[in-house]
Specification:
This protein has 296 residues and is mainly β. It contains 2 helices and 15 strands. 6% of the residues lie in helices and 22% in strands. The strands form 5 sheets. The chain has a 4-stranded mixed β-sheet. Strands 13-12-10-14 form a 4-stranded mixed β-sheet, with no helix packed on it. A 3-stranded antiparallel β-sheet has the order 4-7-15, with no helix packed on it.
Length: 296
């Protein structure tokens, strides 16, 4: 069974340390995130225009496990705003305004990176994930001793309705949870890759299953910056630095695609026009990776 590689977090004292984990098989389930974003509103008067796809053929045969995305010009962003990251239906202000973007053709993994593929990388490089490393007292001087052990924070659904003011009710620290066994003993949450039909490009799980890291630094007004320059932004690489007004000193990169925890009643950042965000040395057990490769 090929499972999507996911990332998981451990709560150490009042801190979150993110860990590389593996995924497991199960049906998607409802849960909630609790982060709130504070960002200035951007104009949202721009409308969606038709996507203009390139007609270029792939420059070479496909790398193993990848499909050709021809690129082109499209409208990116949202026309709807809300203050909350996940607290209500809709999307957030950092997805405003709609703006035009052009990208060259590129290769993209048909699925998220799987445990099997990641194991090959680990065997070749002897890489030890953060989840397998013991946090130190120097890193977290205020953490209780019992939390200074290798492990991760794992989503655990409540048995009944719960107040949303305390996320510790549905996240637990699990000693020993890592990519080989992401939830410790027993498993629930992530579906195996290719469990559902692909989209028109042949890509699986582009919405749901696990969030996917991108290389872009996160800034809430980045779409506004692109729109202000006029014309389509060509192959934008994201801002030069990270800034999240909710946590000004924390470096974050953009997440895409949502996860099994997203629902249209609560967290709708899995929608195409929206994005998530995560601290660069952190993760959770519903965040993973999808490989991309340009032609240069």
């Amino acid at each position: 069974m090929k499972r999507a590689l996911i990332l998981a977090a451990v709560i150490v004292g009042g801190f979150l340390i993110w860990k590389v984990l593996g995924s497991n098989e199960n049906k998607n389930q409802r849960a909630h995130e609790t982060e709130t974003i504070i960002a200035e509103s951007a104009p949202n008067s721009a409308a969606f225009e038709p996507t203009v796809s390139n007609n270029e053929s792939p420059p070479s045969s496909a790398p193993e496990g990848m499909v050709w995305i021809p690129g082109g010009e499209f409208s990116m962003g949202s026309t709807v705003e809300s203050e909350s990251m996940c607290g209500m239906p809709g999307v957030t202000r950092d997805a405003l305004p709609v703006h035009r973007v052009y990208v060259d053709g590129f290769w993209m993994g048909a699925t998220e990176l799987t445990n099997e593929e990641f194991e090959k990388f680990v065997n070749a490089t002897h890489y030890i994930t953060i989840a397998e490393r013991t946090p130190t007292r120097e890193e977290f001087p205020d953490a209780p001793a019992e939390n200074l052990v290798a492990g991760s924070t794992v989503f655990t659904p409540t048995l009944q309705a719960a107040s949303l003011d305390n996320y510790f009710q549905w996240w637990r620290y699990q000693k020993g949870a890592n990519w080989r066994h992401p939830e410790g003993p027993g498993f629930a949450g992530i579906a195996p890759v290719r469990s559902f039909s692909p989209n028109g490009y042949g890509l699986y799980d582009m919405a749901g299953n696990v969030w996917e890291w991108t290389n872009d630094w996160y800034q809430p007004d980045y779409y506004k910056q692109l729109a202000a320059k006029g014309g389509p932004a060509r192959n934008p690489r994201g801002p030069d630095s990270s800034f999240d007004p909710a946590e000004p000193g924390v470096k974050k990169r953009v997440h895409r695609g949502g996860s099994f925890l997203c629902t249209d009643q609560y967290c709708t950042r899995y929608m195409v026009g929206t994005r998530g965000k995560g601290e660069v040395s952190t993760a959770t057990n519903h965040v993973g990776v999808r490989l991309v490769k340009d032609t240069k």
